[in-house]
Amino acid sequence: MHALPVEAYTSQEWFDLEMKTIFSTTWQFAGLVEDVANAGDYISVQAGLNNIFIVKGRDNRLRAFHNMCRHRGTQLLRAVGKNQKAITCPYHDWTYNLEGKLISVPKKEEEFPNLCNKELHDCGLNLHEASVDIFKGMLFVHPDKDAPNIMEFFGDVEPCLGPHIVEELVEYQEKEGEPFYTKEIKANWKIIVENYIDHYHLAHLHEGTLNMYDHAKAEFGWAGQHYWFNEPLVPEYMADVENASPQPLIKANKSEDMRVYVPWLFPNIGITEGESAWNTFHAIPLAPDRTLVVIRSKMENASEWEFTKQYTKSSMSKVWQHYGNKGKYEGDASDSMASGDFMEEDVYACEQQQKSLSSPMFSVGARAQRGEYAVMRFQEEVKKWMEKHGAFDKK
């Protein structure tokens, strides 16, 4: 019932292999296009064994480089920044331009008389290049300079995604300066993924929090190594969705066939494309038993007044007297299973599964033929990708 051994979820050795053979060999989510909107803007991301930054040049081109000075390997740039004029190492002030060329070495003639007698950028010490590309309004990086075309990686799944025009949406901020939802979960990243693509649990664990969607009519499958999923709104919610939706509806969704799309892009980025929000769900492996989840949300480009009006209409809708926000159990809202928050329910389930892996009694007793088939398929994709990149080659 399991394509991977327990060690795949608990072992540091296996985790290290994944960093080397999965996360260092795939396109990795880095952010949204608007994160580097202007010349000199940059973001950095950990892609397996590599820290990579994306920077927009004065020519408005996006470029990606390995985030290490060619002198001693010191990290050049921290997480995010704006209007960078040049890239200077904080350790010894070696400086590169936005095209990754070495342009300045302090005390060059005194300290490095033999470094180069011509232009510094001809000395072979420019930044190591990586690859950057855009898919559905998202920025991705690849550690290789000559990475496979991003559409070779995502092309099969693109027709299965929602109709949302991501570039026309705007990012939602619940609090000023805190645009992202972040949560460290005490579970292996693959458990997080398996929960995300497990159709079987939706009508059970989330019977009171996600019952505005018609799980019985879900459609799902695989396109290459990527999982696609969508399901319609239940008729009662659909009939009053213009009033019941908590936020203004996304205009690109056609009302006659409004669905929620929840694909998973291999290896570690999910997208939730709903009637009123578009979200990224980034599962970042930290350790064999720890994963950082970062969620970013975009919504229709409407005024604050439109959002206020829609929230008021939604709170008065009779739909919510029956659907949504009911915890699995009754009790204090601090209890994940009584919180009425489907994310808290999922976190609880994932962490409990991780704990059970250490028990000698652990086993998978049965697998739902339809609802859990994607879990096995994902495990097979992980194993296949690792084998392809030499994870299990004999030393």
Automatic annotation (TrEMBL):
Annotated ranges, domain Rieske: 27-106
CDD domains hit by this protein: RHO_alpha_C, Rieske_RO_Alpha_N
UniProt xrefs under InterPro entries: ARHD_Rieske_2Fe_2S, Rieske_2Fe-2S, Rieske_2Fe-2S_sf, Ring_hydroxy_dOase_asu_C_dom, Rng_hydr_dOase-A
Record-level Gene Ontology MF annotations: 2 iron, 2 sulfur cluster binding; dioxygenase activity; iron ion binding
Keyword annotations from UniProtKB, A to Z: 2Fe-2S, Dioxygenase, Iron, Iron-sulfur, Metal-binding, NAD, Oxidoreductase
Required co-factors: Fe cation
Protein name as annotated: Aromatic ring-hydroxylating dioxygenase subunit alpha
Organism: Tenacibaculum pelagium
Lineage of origin: Bacteria, Pseudomonadati, Bacteroidota, Flavobacteriia, Flavobacteriales
